[in-house]
């Protein structure tokens, strides 16, 4: 009879070969209008069967509302708090005592981002000197509390971080931030088994480059709807993969290709924005979301990495009156998958659902069962 090790290897192969990226959604509150009660947000997300939620605001009452729901929570520490958290570990502990310790593990907190798109805010206030010290203090504070399963990272914006998406093989991290900030941060992520977080918007890149066909940005299967990387010979069929592989290439250039990548924000606006944004409409937004979910559930990964990205968070759960509440985005755009009244706008199933193991996976599973129970 085959050994237990052989059976374990078979089962591990099945899981590894057919694991799919996890798909979640961002929920951000707004200061201009009253937000729905936390219990209603939690119940809505559970009804939609969305397994992961990113909470940029990390309100304690909202974290508490997800207790015992089996929804994984991705929390963030706002940029203005970085200097204090970097200067004093006791302040990192204070943040954890307010946002994590009262709720964990009943609320499934699985990731904390220390800051969001800090490179975008340099013109107003430079938080980059505090970034890595704040991450280290929060990591050590978690371990002091005996919490070792919540990784710490930070979130970057594609446009202020990566030099180019055309072709992906030429992409690098923008300097001097690449060597001074991102490289030591990648070392920290590798040492602590964390992930590299990136905001990735094909819509914004499409708006900046008139040569990109809209179908290429929307995952549409049109004839000749592809772009070739002439350096590597790799063919791309959608803009999302091209941008993701640009990030993976930049990480590989620095020697950290094994660090997982999480897309912390992505989406397509269904309306609003500046004059002339005709592509910001509900039809295109639904096409993007359906194409994205279909692509992620296919399990094909990206051309440069068969496992692709580890997680993807759609921006965002619901529209806000007067547009979004994020200073890093154009005011007035509607990014929500729900309206301001929390009704569905699109017929898109974001839930990761059941993994499709395929015939080979089922065959290997049956072999393992057969040998396990002679």
UniProtKB/TrEMBL annotation:
Question: Which keywords does this Swiss-Prot/TrEMBL entry list?
Answer: Glycosidase, Hydrolase, Membrane, Signal, Transmembrane, Transmembrane helix
Where does the chain cross the membrane? 357-373
What terms describe the molecular function in GO for this protein? glucan endo-1,3-beta-D-glucosidase activity
Q: What is its EC number?
A: 3.2.1.39
GO BP annotations of the record are: carbohydrate metabolic process
Broad class of enzyme this protein falls into? hydrolase
- What does UniProt give as the signal peptide span? 1-19
Q: Which reaction does it catalyse?
A: Hydrolysis of (1->3)-beta-D-glucosidic linkages in (1->3)-beta-D-glucans
Report the InterPro entries cross-referenced here: GH (IPR017853), Glyco_hydro_17 (IPR000490), Glyco_hydro_17_plant (IPR044965)
A Pfam family name for this chain?
Glyco_hydro_17
The entry's family comment says: Belongs to the glycosyl hydrolase 17 family.
The protein in question is named glucan endo-1,3-beta-D-glucosidase
Q: Which gene is the coding source of this polypeptide chain?
A: LOC107935455
């Amino acid at each position: 009879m085959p050994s237990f090790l052989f059976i374990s290897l078979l089962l591990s192969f099945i899981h590894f070969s057919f694991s799919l990226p996890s798909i979640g959604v961002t929920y951000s509150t707004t200061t201009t209008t009253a937000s729905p009660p936390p219990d209603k947000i939690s119940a809505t997300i559970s009804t939609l069967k969305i397994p992961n939620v990113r909470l940029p605001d990390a309100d304690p009452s909202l974290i508490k509302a997800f207790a015992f729901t089996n929804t994984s929570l991705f929390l963030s520490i706002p940029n203005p708090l970085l200097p204090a958290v970097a200067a004093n570990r006791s302040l990192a502990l204070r943040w954890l005592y307010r946002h994590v310790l009262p709720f964990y593990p009943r609320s499934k907190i699985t990731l904390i981002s220390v800051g969001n798109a800090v490179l975008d805010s340099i013109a107003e206030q430079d938080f980059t000197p505090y970034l890595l010290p704040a991450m280290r203090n929060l990591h050590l504070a978690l371990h002091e509390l005996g919490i070792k399963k919540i990784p710490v990272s930070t979130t970057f914006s594609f446009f202020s971080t990566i030099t180019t998406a055309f072709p992906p093989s030429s992409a690098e991290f923008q300097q001097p931030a690449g060597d001074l900030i991102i490289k030591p941060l990648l070392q920290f992520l590798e040492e602590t088994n964390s992930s590299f977080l990136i905001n990735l918007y094909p819509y914004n890149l499409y708006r900046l480059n008139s040569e990109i066909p809209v179908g290429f940005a929307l995952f549409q299967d049109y004839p000749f709807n592809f772009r070739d990387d002439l350096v590597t010979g790799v063919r791309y069929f959608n803009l999302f993969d091209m941008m993701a592989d640009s990030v993976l290439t930049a990480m590989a250039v620095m020697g950290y290709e094994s660090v997982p990548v999480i897309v912390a924000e992505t989406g397509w606006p269904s309306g609003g924005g500046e004059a002339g944004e005709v592509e910001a409409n509900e039809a295109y937004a639904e096409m993007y979301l359906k194409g994205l979910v279909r692509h992620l559930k296919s399990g094909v990964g990206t051309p440069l990495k068969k496992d692709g990205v580890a997680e993807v968070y759609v921006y965002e759960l619901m529209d806000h009156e007067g547009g979004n509440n994020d200073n890093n985005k154009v005011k007035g755009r509607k990014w929500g998958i729900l309206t301001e009244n929390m009704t569905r706008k699109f017929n898109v199933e974001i839930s990761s659902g059941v993994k499709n193991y395929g015939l080979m996976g089922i065959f290997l599973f049956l072999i393992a069962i057969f040998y396990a129970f002679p």
